[in-house]
Structures are given as structure tokens and as C-alpha cells.
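Example record

One chain of 158 residues, shown exactly as stored in the release files.
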Amino acid sequence: MRSMILGQFYEVLSFSIKDVLFPAFTFLLGLIGGISQHVQKPLGDYRKTLTDISELMLRSVLVLYEKREKTEPASDAAKKFHNDLRILHARLVASSNAIPQFARPVLRVLGLLRSRKQINEGAKMLIGISNQAISPDKDLRHLHELSNTLGKALGIAV
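Predicted C-alpha cells for this chain:
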């Protein structure tokens, strides 16, 4: 009698594992894999944009703090730096907005995504720095504050 009950239990258990758990587990893995594509690409674009901003700021220190007369027009390097910052501003806002809403809290906890407030503050700093780069009345102290705030807001080296 005992072996008969044990045999039936084994059949029910094998049925539930083979016909219920494996398909359910496969479905969940497929769902997670499908969702991760919609998070992974925008997150990669966002992280690449942060790297590009940091690289540009570190590479362009001489252009950023160059001295010139008020009557002298901005150099070609300063104009290019201005345009590059505007492009990176647009990429930062667009790439951060492309990350799905459901994934944001988890990515923030993992340290992969800044808050919207920090991203918007960093975006404003990019515009301010780009304006100062071509301004005839360049305020170096203010430019330094903008750069530091940008680095803190986005968590990057500038």
C-alpha cells in the first residue's frame, strides 16, 4: 500500500515538474529577457552619454578657460565645444527619458541611473557651460561652479 501511494506521489510530482513548472519557468525567463532588451539599450545609451560628457569636459579644459578680449570672437574650438555640449545635452535628456518608468527605481538603487532632478540639473549645467564657452564676458568663477555642479549632479569626473 505504501509503495503504491509513493508511486502515485512520484507520478504527480513528475507531472507537475515536467508539465507545469518547466513551462512556467521558461515563460518567466522569456518575459524577463524580452523586458531587459527595452531597459538595456536605453541604459547603455545613457551611460555612454555620461562617459562622453566627462570625456569632453576633461579634454576641453583649455578651450573652456581660454582668455580672450571682449571684442575678439570665440575661437573655432570654443564654437565646436559649444555645439558638442548642446548635442550632449540633447542626448542626455533623450537617453534618460528613454529608460522605462518601471525600471527606474531598481536602476537608481543599483547606482546606474541618477534621479530626474539630478539629470535635469546636469542638463542645465551643460547649457550654462556651453553659453559661457562662447561668451565674451566669461566668468571663470561661475564657470568653475557650473563644472563642479555638473560633476556632482551626474556623478562624473569633469
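Notes: The radius of gyration is 26 Å.
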